[in-house]
Amino acid sequence: MTMYAPASPEHPAATDDPITTIVIAGATGDLAQRKLLPALYHLWIKGRLAPNVPIVGFSRAKMSTDEFREFMWRGIQEIGGIEPNRDQWEAFAPRLSYFGGDLGSTDDVGALGKHLDETEAGDPHANRLFYLSITPAIFEPAVSSLDACGLVEETPDTGWRRVVVEKPFGRDLATANALNRTIHNVFREEQVYRIDHYLGKETVQNLLVLRFANAIFEPIWNRNYVDNVQITVAESVDVGERAGYYDQFGVVRDMIQNHLLQVLALVTMEPPVTLEADSLRNKKVEALRAIRPWTASEAARNAVRAQYVGYRDAHGVDPHSATPTYAAMRLYLDNWRWQGVPFYLRSGKAMAQKSSEIAIEFRAPPHRIFPANPMWGPLANILTLRLQPDEGVHLRFAAKLPDQGMAVRPVDMDFYYGTEFGSEELPEAYERLLSDALDGDASLFIRSDHIEEAWKIVDPLLEAWEDSISHPVQWYEPGSWGPETADALLSQDGRAWAPVGDRHGRIND
């Protein structure tokens, strides 16, 4: 990654690199204000954004460039990480400009093209990165307008052209395929950067390091030693102001089809030859293809859906809604490494605490020679990877209690990012992903075949749940860990959900 010193009006940094223009479509939306511009600003503060990278906001809102800069300054002030400094912001802000218009209008997009030419001082070799932070409903006309006006044309005489696409990537396999066709009518696959912010998290990337940089884990990372794997992404907040939007998608489309299956692929994939994009993404797609497909009836037997009490009272939610705010499921991978090992996934809103964890539970010793003590529960070894909050890794193993004969109890060996690296802040996921998109590194972005494989996994489940009479929605209390039927899903196999840790490594059941 190229490092640059932040420029200032008095001492602008010089570079021989071509101009790279970032165009943010939907620039007055929440994502742009709270995530995208703060991420770019933080990259600049850290010296990781080249001085010749102008940022153009494009949206329907009527706003001047000065008003747009102030709008983004408010977003910077709300984001943690780097303390906002007005003098630094005044040095950064001149690279921002704003152009109002409708992305579906060729007239407006054509006028945007003229604005870009002026911003790039007519440089024919300028690069362009288009970030489409827009609703899926206008995606097709937006891409068509960009193409018709020549803004994304890439030839040997121009710089590169790339597009970043936000989720949701369709509502099902059919719409995902249609979306990919729309994209590929204009862009080659290598120009497309489908973003899932979960892959930009330091702790998710650390999963690759844990597995492939440490010789002690990979030899036991298989069906011979692993009893089951559990992936939990729990949110303590309810749907809030997103209720109307959320009711159209639900937890499977919003979380499981993308975030949890992304994590599952990283847990189960075979070692890549390199970290180069195709090598890494090929292995992830192979892992998804190994997941045992469901019929609709099998999906219903292997999954649970539920709503938290009070969900239907939220503004914008259908009073008869069957949209799940919680889902749990059991998956199997049919390959040599994982045959017979159950993978349990769960995610929900309004749960007991915010937590994203991967629990690898290992098989028990073949013969128990130490006395059991029911108060300590099972003595299985559990490797827990905490993705957020209190990011770290915990290994649970058995230890002898002092002065109590050969009695044993489980203990934890902990690693915390905050303890180990001190004041070193974990960067926002969008910082890494935007930097990679500018550098042309697609390793942490999602390929079209990955999207399609993920939808093939959950489509039968969504189809089964459309029959609300045969598969009614369960209920759970806000602040709980979900419905009793989710516990029953594991108890069918003689298992239970692994305990979830808090910031001090203690265990919450």
Task: Walk me through this protein's architecture.
With 509 residues, the chain is α/β, with parallel strands linked by helices. It has 15 helices and 17 strands. It has a 9-stranded mixed sheet, sandwiched between helices. The chain has a 6-stranded parallel sheet with strand order 3-2-1-4-5-6, sandwiched between helices. Strand 12 (382-388) and strand 13 (392-400) form a beta hairpin. The protein is globular and about 80 Å long.
Task: Please provide a brief summary of the model.
This protein has 509 residues and is of the alpha/beta class.
Topology of helices and strands:
Blueprint: E1 20-25, H1 30-45, E2 55-59, H2 65-78, H3 86-92, E3 96-100, H4 106-119, E4 127-132, H5 139-148, E5 161-166, H6 173-184, E6 192-195, H7 202-212, E7 226-234, H8 243-246, H9 250-268, H10 277-289, H11 296-301, E8 303-308, E9 326-331, E10 343-348, E11 355-362, E12 382-388, E13 392-400, E14 408-416, H12 417-421, H13 429-439, H14 448-465, E15 474-476, H15 484-491, E16 500-501, E17 507-508
Parallel strand pairs: 1-2, 1-4, 2-3, 4-5, 5-6, 7-10, 8-15
Antiparallel strand pairs: 7-11, 8-9, 9-10, 11-12, 12-13, 13-14, 16-17
